[in-house]
Predict the 3D structure of the following.
Amino acid sequence: MWRVRRELAVFKILGALACAGLGVYWWAEGDFRGVVLAVPATLLVGGMGLRDLLVPVRLAADESGITVVHGFAGRRHVPWEKIWDIKVDVRRRWGLRTEMLEIDTEDNLHIFSAHELGASPTEVAAALRRRGT
C-alpha cells in the first residue's frame, strides 16, 4: 500500500490557510486584485490537501490486482490480467530528475508521482511487477 505522506497533506492545508490569510489581509487593505488571486489559490491548495486527507492511499496491491484512486476520491480495482504495462517515466529538466509511475490498463493510464506514493516510483514498479507475476 502506497500513500501520500501526512507531512505533505499538512503542508498543503497550511498553504491554503496562508492563502486565505493573505486574501483577508488584501480584502481589508482594499486590494481586490490580490483577493482575486488568493481565493482560487486557497480553493485549489485546500482541495488538494483535503483530497490527501480523505484518500491518502493512492495505490494498493493484493493477490487479485491493484486498487487505484479514480477521480477526486473514488477507487477502482483493476485485476492483474487487465494491466498491460507498468513502467517508470524518467525525465531530466533544469538539472532535476523526476520519476512518474505509469500503469497502463485496458481503458486508463494511471500516473503517480513519488509524492503521491510516498516512495520511489522505481521501487513501487519493481514491487508491482514481482507481485503481478
Summary: The mean pLDDT is 92.
